[in-house]
Specification:
Order of helices and strands: HEHHEHEHEHEHEHEEHHHEEHEEEH
CATH topology of the largest domain: Aspartate Aminotransferase, domain 2
Number of helices: 13
Strand content: 15-25%
Structural class: alpha/beta
CATH architecture of the largest domain: 3-Layer(aba) Sandwich
Number of domains: 2
Distance between the termini: 50 Å
Bound molecules: pyridoxal-5'-phosphate
Strand order of the largest sheet: 2-8-7-6-5-3-4
Largest sheet: 7 strands, mixed
Shape: globular
Oligomer: single chain
Number of strands: 13
């Protein structure tokens, strides 16, 4: 018999994108471009390093675990009560905390078959069962999600836009979902890529939160804000749910550096606008280049594209890595012939498309 909790038996560790230095060493490359983890290729606001540098004078002190100043600023920006916010070491931390407060062994949560893996980790680590619904046009099928609800269902996880497919659901679809989910099932909308969205019918989830106590909204500073290494994300929810999380939150879960960086990043709207514009422009370039090669890609509202290269994605991944480009093989998500490609800079994508042509010509 194992000394460890039984539910760990079927869990697998998260597989992150390959680190640049490791790939450089392995293949003797001087330049490696990482297009694997949906980070911002433009970096972060120039105000961030200045703000972070100032914190080191007091590095000996624990952070303010309640993130008081950041909480105040986020509360004002999104017009939400400060006590409705929970900050974490990335959204990952908030996702894990949601599992801890909602899931008893045997409870169920529902999500789509092809989505962000940490939802399942949050549920399964607590002995819960993740129920998966099939994809519809590569996106979430919200009707199938509602049909999968049983008396054991506690949580629904919806990524909007979805990772890895980049698909989204509309405001109308979100209203329908909330109308058809029982009030004792909590619906978590993960909007990690929201700032990249250009679709005009995308939902206003802040309004959804005001209307439904059982809605949760997740946001991150790791994507358009460009501070993934500093690990800051947050959730907005009912004050009652946030108060439950406070009981289990690690007291100093967000670093002083992360908080200072998030504050500086939030204030630099010009950097955000630039990042969004560049992403859209370079994504359109990449889409056109893929189409010219006769390759299908899933239309994306995020900062990555899922392209069908019509061959084993792991082999294509290895071959691209040897040429200095790290992407994510679709096989990691059960989409064997697809590659998930983060949109880099124009120059990076031009190089990537050349490398892809060479790899696929073999
Ligand atoms: C949909 C989605 N949610 C959450 C995260 C986690 O982000 P964070 O860096 O805030 O933990 C990611 C990261 O890739 C993501 O794709």
């Amino acid at each position: 018999m194992s000394v460890y909790r039984s539910n760990l038996k079927n869990m697998q560790p998260y597989v992150p994108g390959r680190p640049i230095d490791e790939v450089k060493r392995q293949y003797g490359l001087s330049r490696v471009v990482k297009l694997a983890s949906n980070e911002n290729p433009l970096g972060c606001s120039p105000k961030v390093p200045e703000a972070v540098a100032r914190t080191f004078a007091e590095a000996r002190l624990y952070p303010d675990g309640y993130c008081t100043e950041l909480r105040q600023v986020v509360s004002g920006k999104y017009n939400i009560a400060p006590e409705q916010l929970v900050f974490g070491a990335g959204t990952d931390d908030v996702i894990a905390m949601l599992g801890k407060i909602f899931i008893n062994p045997g409870d169920e949560a529902v999500t789509a078959q092809t989505t962000f893996s940490q939802y399942a980790a949050s549920v399964e680590s607590m002995g819960g069962v993740m129920v998966y619904t099939p994809m519809k046009d590569y996106g979430f099928d919200l009707r199938a999600i509602v049909k999968s609800i049983t008396e054991k269902t506690k949580l629904i996880f919806v990524a909007n836009p979805n990772n890895p497919t980049g698909t989204y659901h509309t405001a109308e679809e979100q209203s329908w979902l909330m109308e058809n989910v029982p009030g004792d099932v909590t619906v978590i909308f993960d909007e990690a890529y929201r700032e990249y969205v250009t679709a005009s019918d995308y939902p206003d989830t802040w309004a959804t939160l005001k209307k439904y106590k059982n809605a949760v909204l997740l946001k991150t500073f790791s994507k358009i804000y460009g501070i993934a290494s500093l690990r800051v994300g947050f959730g907005a929810m009912s004050a009652e749910t946030a108060a439950q999380i406070e009981k289990i939150r690690c007291p100093f879960n967000v670093t002083v550096q992360g908080q200072a960086a998030a504050l500086a990043a939030l204030n630099d709207t010009a950097f955000m606008e630039k990042s969004k514009g560049e992403n859209r422009r370079v994504m359109e370039f990449t889409g056109r280049a893929l189409t010219e090669m006769g390759l299908y890609y899933i239309p994306s509202q995020a900062n990555f594209l899922m392209a069908d290269v019509k061959r084993d994605s792991r082999a294509a991944f290895e071959a691209l890595m040897k040429k200095g480009y790290i992407i994510r093989p679709g096989a990691a998500f059960g989409m064997d012939t697809f590659l998930r490609i983060t949109v880099g800079t124009q120059e990076e994508m031009e190089g990537f498309m050349d490398a892809l042509k060479e790899v696929l010509a073999v």
